[in-house]
Design a protein that fits this description.
Strand content: 25-35%
Helix content: under 10%
Number of helices: 1
Shape: globular
Distance between the termini: 22 Å
Strand order of the largest sheet: 1-5-3-4-2
Amino acid sequence: MGPPGEMGPPGEMGPPGEYIPMAYSYTLTEGKYIKNKDSLKLSHMNVNQCKNACDNQDWCKSFDFHTNNKFCNLSTYNQEDVSLSGNKKYNFYEKINS
């Protein structure tokens, strides 16, 4: 790690005792979402804020982002668990496990 106060790579300890969460990658499916399986609803967000929110939750497998109203729904489900529904106002982001 670098000089004191510099944050280390994701998933490592940063400055004294500060954990830096892992930054995950996501697949994007436009015009799709998971219907009625929201675990946490967040409003006034952009896509990057939604990604960060999902990254910070161990249980989060995916999220839907409403492109017009700027909210996201974090979910414990992904495409392996449930079928996606169509809605052009949503984009579906699924966490890629590495």
